[in-house]
Design a protein that fits this description.
The protein is of the alpha/beta class and about 300 residues long. Helices cover about 20% and strands about 30% of the residues. Strand 15 and strand 16 (about 275-280) form a beta hairpin. Helix 5 runs parallel beside helix 6 (about 230-240). It binds flavin-adenine dinucleotide and FE2/S2 (inorganic) cluster (FES). FE2/S2 (inorganic) cluster binds near residues 255 and 283.
């Protein structure tokens, strides 16, 4: 094993049982793929080979003290020796990241978090999963769609994905290529706020249409979602009205990414707690939660 790789084994039940790799590795590619959206490819075969759909990594720029902390980013794609992360430039960390060039080092730790719940007994998997993404929330959906499509029992995956405009639907081609690999089994329906592409309106309007079609039932489907919280709240409400289980991936700001600092807390229902809720750490107990467990504000 490469000497630069530290394996942090956190084996307490309180944290989680995954092996986390902490590495300083090379950037292979880093390029703009949309309006203020970039895609970075990082050489890490350890993370690429162990990541589960919906898990994330923390990225930090070595040698920089501002920002000092890493940034949590979903793992979009994993090939045998590398991972791709797609990120929106929104502040200090991502602005700096966009200036990084191939060959430079980046510090990474992961894979982190629980990921989407995929039962080890694959006969329990939904045969008609419904994926709903908003904005940059498509990033955990590629691996999830791929996992479902690799199972022959999956009849069809439907991905609903809305963005501000066409330029914000970054890396749509990856999903289209995946659909081409699995003819007739990946349906992609887009929405844009400005109507510049596909449905003019919110992605939750597409969700309502799909759920009203009666094609998705509690026997054959679950909803998996990632995006801004107001959207997730609506996605969850529509799923609940249709009696579907809904899993949401939260993008809560984080500092350590592994259960130590409590920066990433969110309120979870807990009938044993005096007020009926307690804090959960999004980095370890999430980022994916059953929507019914969350206290939506
Ligand atoms: C599990 C997880 C997975 C994520 N995956 C992705 C991904 O794949 N692609 C992607 O582009 N982003 C993703 N995010 C969000 C990403 O972590 C933040 O956008 C990033 O940390 C911002 O860093 P910055 O230094 O550029 O911005 P900062 O300088 O830290 O902040 C800039 C502005 O953005 C706000 N902000 C910072 N973090 C967040 C956040 N998490 N949610 C809402 N507002 C925030 C700040 O309040 C501030 O207004 C993910 C977050 C989590 C928790
Ligand atoms: S980010 Fe530190 S505990 Fe979650």
């Amino acid at each position: 094993m490469n000497k630069s790789i530290k394996v942090i084994s956190l084996s307490t039940k309180d944290i989680f049982m995954n092996t986390i790799f902490h590495q300083t590795v090379k950037i292979i590619r880093n390029e703009a793929v949309g309006d203020q959206i970039w895609r970075i490819r990082i050489a890490s075969k350890e993370i690429a080979r162990t990541v589960k759909p919906g898990q994330f990594c923390m990225l930090r720029l070595p040698g920089f003290h501002a920002p000092l902390l890493g940034r949590p980013l979903a793992i979009f794609r994993a090939d045998s020796d590398s991972i791709d992360v797609v990120y929106a430039v929104v502040g200090k960390g991502t602005e700096l990241m966009a200036k990084f060039v191939p060959g430079q080092d980046i510090e990474i730790w992961g894979p982190l978090g629980n990921g989407f719940p995929l039962n080890s007994d694959k006969t329990q998997w939904p045969t008609r999963p419904l994926l709903v993404a908003g904005g940059i929330g498509q990033t955990p959906m590629f691996l999830l769609a791929q996992a479902f499509l690799n199972e022959s029992r999956t009849e069809k995956v439907t991905l609903l994905w809305g963005g501000r405009d066409k330029a914000h639907l970054a890396c749509l081609e990856d999903f289209e290529e995946l659909a081409a690999q699995f003819p007739g089994r990946l349906e992609i329906l887009n929405a844009t706020d400005d109507g510049s592409y596909a449905h003019h309106g919110f992605v939750t309007e597409l969700e309502k249409e799909q759920l009203d079609s009666g094609e998705f039932t509690s026997e054959n489907s679950c909803v998996y979602s990632c995006g801004p919280e107001p959207m997730l709240k609506k996605v969850a409400e529509l799923a609940q009205n249709a009696s579907l289980t809904c899993w949401v991936s939260l993008e809560t700001p984080m500092a350590c990414g592994m259960g130590i600092c409590f920066t990433c807390i969110t309120k979870c229902k807990d009938k044993n707690a005096p007020e009926g809720w307690d804090y959960c750490r999004t980095c370890t107990e999430g980022p994916v939660f059953n929507a019914e467990k969350l206290v939506w504000e």
